[in-house]
Predict the structure of F-box domain-containing protein.
Amino acid sequence: MTHYASTSAHEPPPFTVNLSKGGPNRDFEYPGKTRPTDNGPRSPLIHILDDYSLLNIFSLYRPALSDESELDDANDQILDEGEWSRKQWWYRLVQVCRRWRYIVLESASRLRLSLVCARGAPVADMLAHSPLPVIIDHFDDKYYDVTAEDEEGIIFALTQHRYRVRRIRLRMVVYILQKLINTLDGEFPILEYLLIEPLQFQ
């Protein structure tokens, strides 16, 4: 038999479910002051998690890049070389609420957060407002051209913020690549990945 603790007249007992089947009583107590019903509002359970638990969840949610050593099995690959759009995964988390934003940005190193300089990104403005590492990614077969603004953004990141560049992927026509390669003369202290490939027309 399930027993309830004494409560006041205005506070119903916790919602419990008896899980025992022929064995000792094992009651599960719903973590809330009101028992959930189909008609009444439910309190969001996410708020009962502490910051450390949320951070661990965010760490598990983080997509892994295919060349990271932490991937032991190719079948576990979440983000392959041709699908880098999910490197902006954390953008949504910081928009949920102020608490999540604080946890994510305070743990930027552990979560390996990066800014993404891709087609159409306002690179200069983006780099001026955040000290996070930078990923330069122009590797999309859908676009054969590079706008003047995108080219300026790439050169700006490679020359003025080279100490922040973590990854570079470039696939473009040869004459544009030649101009960009000239800007690579120098040290990139945190660079982890470099892929440069001329665009091949069919």
Q: What stands out?
A: Residues 114-202 form one domain. The chain has three domains: 1-43, 45-113, 114-202. The longest strand covers residues 165-172.
